[in-house]
Amino acid sequence: PEAVLLALPFEQGPPAPAPIQLLIEGDDLRTLVSLGDEMRRVMAQTPGITFTTASLQTGSPRLTLRADEAAAAISGERLSGLTAALNAQLEGVRAGSVLEGVEELPVRVIARDERRSSVADLGATSVGNGTPLSALGDLTLDPDIGIITRRDGRRVNDLRAYLEPFTLPAPVLADFQQRLDDSGFDLPPGYRLITGGEAENSGDAIGNLLSLAVPLILIMAGAVALVFNSFRMSLLILSVGLLSVGLAFTGVWLFNLPLGFNGILGAMGLLGIAINGSIVVLSMLRTSPESMADDVIAQRETVVDATRHIVATTLTTMGGFVPLLITADLFWMPLAAAIAGGVAGSALLALYFTPAVFRIMTMKPMSRMARMVAGRGRAPQPAE
Questions:
Q1: Under 8 Å CB-to-CB from 335, ≥6 apart: which residues?
Q2: Which among 44, 67, 155, 303 has the fewest CB atoms less than 10 Å away?
């Protein structure tokens, strides 16, 4: 009857013990329990939070024998012997082991339930020369903290909050922190609050992912600069890649999906795919002498010739992610939506943005005679 069933959806990103995890660090156990109970009351009032737990909780039964050392000495027992006698009654004594396959199972000999069903039955247990335990001191059963959790050697109260399915932890955590501030909650001196859970793990994972993006971008810039022998063209290609990452996030938004680890992973992996179309367009423009000579008509025809190749490769790349988008798999959909949206946007960038910037880069200043011809709309007549 006391069982609690907690059903959790299969979330994205690195594994976390709970969507929201808060650690109260301090020295006094009673203070940690009191602070945890106060924070859990605020958690219970926060929309989106369904269930909370705390690692430090009072209520675990603890049997205490306040022994009289003089009476124990008369009975011929040491205090350590009294502890061993109580452990033998409650947990048994290991008497050997049994091999089951390759696993060794311990065998314990323990007293009958009738001898340890109540404090009075334990008090009647004989020790030493037959003296009952109740004659050597007071046996009491008190509530206590059963498990003490630690982080980096310090005591902590590990609070965990579970959310409604497919609820983002960040806004719920922000709402809880605002409610906690409004309630006047304040930590005593020597205590601090540490945020963990999905927010900490996702932040670490995304940070590690972004740290790899910097050398990746530098390598790509160097490779493009060597291919085109131009730093300006390299910057153009990199700008296309960064704009495609933004379009990848737009794809995630259009499908109304959470921007989690998989979506960011798809956007980062898109960098190498998104620049292919722009590289093709730039290569064709640079190999055309008319396009390099600022011939707008030649530039337009070159881009039109490249359109079929870019559209075909874009559709085939996006088609590979259609099954994931159709099946609506919540784990892989952000990755598929990010790559599909970024690839579609990169095609538009390759056919419109890249030629426009190339036109600006290669534009030749018009001579005075050319400006006159453009203004009159006819060819100049030779002088008589």
A1: 262, 263, 265, 266, 324
A2: 44
